[in-house]
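Entry 14. Structure prediction run on the chain below.
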Amino acid sequence: MPRDPGAEAVIDERSWYVANELLAFLLELAALGCLGWWGFTVGRGAVLHALLGLGIPALAIVLWSLFAAPRARLRPRLPLVLVVKAVVLGGGAVALYGVDHPVAAVVMAVVVVANTTVAEVFRGTPST
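Output returned:
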């Protein structure tokens, strides 16, 4: 029985989509971790460290769940979603820089931009 090359392409495209979405989730977790790490190191005193270390990631979670999550409570247009992603994910990269890891910060920023670009390309292509 002959194989359908179109079906193979759909499976391959789906695999890339799933891998990119998994990477996006891991980047979100990494950004939250970096924001918390930065928060625990900035300022003086244990109370301020705890407030920033827990509060900044909590604020990022609220922003993400309201505007950028796949099942966000509010459904804004793409530009606002991208702004929220830039604030949260870009904030994670900036936080890495803030804890004296500039190379890791640049790597994270590049991966975030590439991942977001690929995600938007996948969302823009019609599924078969």
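Residues 5-41 form the longest helix (37 residues).
Filed with the rest of this week's runs.
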